[in-house]
């Protein structure tokens, strides 16, 4: 089973094709041939679930100046420069100097190689996609901009190039999500967690997202008098999606009780109403409430609703960790998950370490059916109730930590590993046994050396290079923890 997204992912990707105006009178039909080639790229990009804005062919400085206002006005998340043939860098310099959006050069030639025995200059020019890439790179640097990424390959039957195009379309979706997101921040930092403090203004400056300061009473209004039909429907959804096993070895666990199911469903319905009211795209929170109060019951029973929302593409994390909420959003928009995680005990016998948490998790990346147990107490926190337990899919995994440096800037700490096919402790929390190269001791020392906070987002697949590109697009420092 899979929970569908609350909102479809979107992005706007512009395409500017570049060429050399001198060629058109010299070689009949070449311009039309190149425009047809550009149309193929447009269809490829559109197939990755983004809106494409085609700005046509720019073939001299004058036409570059003419198209620039349109490119600026389009509110793009990514600009692809289609290198349909050789182009002088005056076509590119105008754009790269003025634009503050990610730019990728696309050099996809029609032929995998020239037909050398029958080659013509026309054939060469129709496949001269890479020729001016070095020229454009040099001009970008002289304009004070980073060297653009380059996709090199053939227009058809090139899975490597197609995968790179798809990757950049996902990065565009990440950028669109972050710069338009409304992330709620509610409550306060769990007492004494000094690594959790995050300046909302700095977060907006770095990622574009607006931080919406919320009160616990904003959820409580929706908890106080819920629609009984909505609560019943939420119970049905929970029981259809989650297993409810008997307790095993942990004395604080019980089989899910009817009372805890009702509380979890009611809290989930309150969450849904709250985020709709506030038009939120994510939430970081921590609030305890007074012992025995309705507020404590509500605020300590959001875990099941959290996990459903996370699978719907709504990143939600506890302990007030809004910067990890951003990391979770990045992973979700790349469609690789993004569970709220930290390190748990090391398994020296298997050269691995448990990774997990007692809070929200991306249940769409669960290995098998996730479970709910009733807990008599939440360790280290007040309250009791239903809690989610599963391990993520076996195979490659990626971790993304979003930390803050001494000068107040954000930094991505990235690592790749493997989720092992091992059962998780039956404690009502998520846990996955992760193996990291070259060995668990060395890896954990290297991870710690980068000064991450103790939370991170956990996803499936190996995507370190993609996350590093996201950091580059955002202008954020990143490091990939080495495996050798």
Automatic annotation (TrEMBL):
Pfam family, one: Fucose_iso_C
Source taxon at top rank: Bacteria
SUPFAM superfamilies: FucI/AraA C-terminal domain-like, FucI/AraA N-terminal and middle domains
UniProt-listed CDD domains: L-fuc_L-ara-isomerases
Signal peptide residues on this chain, from the entry's feature table: none
GO BP annotations, alphabetical order: fucose metabolic process; L-arabinose catabolic process to D-xylulose 5-phosphate
GO CC field: cytosol
Residues in L-fucose isomerase C-terminal domain copies: 378-477
Keywords: Arabinose catabolism, Carbohydrate metabolism, Isomerase, Manganese, Metal-binding
InterPro entries: Fuc/Ara_isomerase_C, Fuc_isomerase_C, Fucose_isomerase_N/cen_sf, Lara_isomerase
GO MF: L-arabinose isomerase activity; L-fucose isomerase activity; metal ion binding
Protein name, UniProt field: L-arabinose isomerase
Naturally occurring in which organism (per UniProt): Tessaracoccus oleiagri
Lineage of origin: Bacteria, Bacillati, Actinomycetota, Actinomycetes, Propionibacteriales
């Amino acid at each position: 089973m899979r929970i569908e997204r609350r909102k479809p992912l979107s992005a706007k990707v512009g395409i500017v094709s570049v060429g050399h105006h001198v060629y058109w009178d010299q070689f009949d039909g070449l311009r039309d041939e190149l425009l047809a080639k550009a149309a193929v790229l447009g269809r490829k990009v559109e197939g990755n679930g983004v809106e494409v804005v085609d700005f046509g062919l720019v073939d001299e400085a004058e036409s570059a100046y003419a198209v620039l206002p349109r490119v600026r006005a389009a509110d793009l998340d990514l600009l692809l420069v289609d290198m349909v043939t050789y182009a002088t860098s005056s076509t590119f310099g105008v754009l790269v100097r003025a634009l503050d959006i990610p730019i990728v050069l696309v050099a996809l030639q029609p032929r995998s190689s020239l037909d050398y025995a029958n080659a013509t200059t026309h054939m060469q020019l129709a496949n001269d996609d890479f020729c001016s890439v070095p020229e454009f790179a040099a001009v970008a640097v002289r304009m004070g901009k980073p060297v653009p990424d380059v996709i090199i390959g053939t227009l058809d039957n090139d899975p490597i190039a197609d995968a790179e195009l798809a990757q950049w379309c996902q990065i565009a979706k990440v950028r669109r999500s972050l710069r338009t997101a409304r992330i709620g921040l509610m409550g306060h930092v769990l007492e004494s967690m000094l690594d959790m403090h995050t300046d909302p203004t700095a977060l907006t400056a770095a990622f574009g997202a607006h931080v919406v300061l919320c009160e616990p009473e904003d959820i409580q209004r929706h908890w106080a008098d819920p629609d009984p039909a909505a609560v019943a429907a939420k119970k049905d959804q929970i029981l259809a999606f989650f297993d409810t096993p008997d307790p095993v070895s942990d004395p604080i666990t019980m089989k899910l009780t009817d009372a805890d199911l009702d509380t979890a469903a009611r809290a989930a319905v309150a969450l849904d109403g709250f985020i709709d009211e506030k038009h939120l795209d994510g939430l970081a929170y921590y609030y305890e409430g007074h012992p025995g109060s309705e507020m404590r019951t509500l605020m300590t029973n959001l875990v099941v609703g959290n996990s459903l929302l996370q699978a719907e593409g709504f990143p939600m994390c506890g302990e007030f960790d809004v910067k990890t909420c951003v990391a979770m959003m990045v992973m979700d928009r790349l469609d690789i998950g993004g569970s709220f995680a930290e390190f748990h005990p090391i398994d020296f016998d298997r050269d691995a370490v448990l990774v997990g948490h007692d809070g929200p998790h991306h249940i769409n990346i669960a290995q098998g059916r996730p479970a709910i147990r009733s807990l008599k107490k939440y360790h280290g926190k007040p309250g009791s109730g239903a809690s989610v337990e599963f391990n993520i899919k076996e195979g490659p995994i990626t971790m993304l930590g979003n930390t803050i440096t001494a000068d107040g800037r954000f930094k991505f700490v990235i690592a790749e590993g493997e989720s092992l096919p091992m059962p998780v402790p039956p404690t009502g929390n998520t846990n996955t046994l992760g193996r990291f190269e070259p060995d668990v001791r060395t890896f954990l020392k290297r991870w710690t050396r980068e000064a991450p906070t103790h939370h991170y987002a956990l996803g499936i697949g190996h995507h370190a290079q993609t996350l590093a590109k996201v950091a580059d697009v955002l202008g954020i420092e990143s490091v990939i923890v080495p495996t050798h």
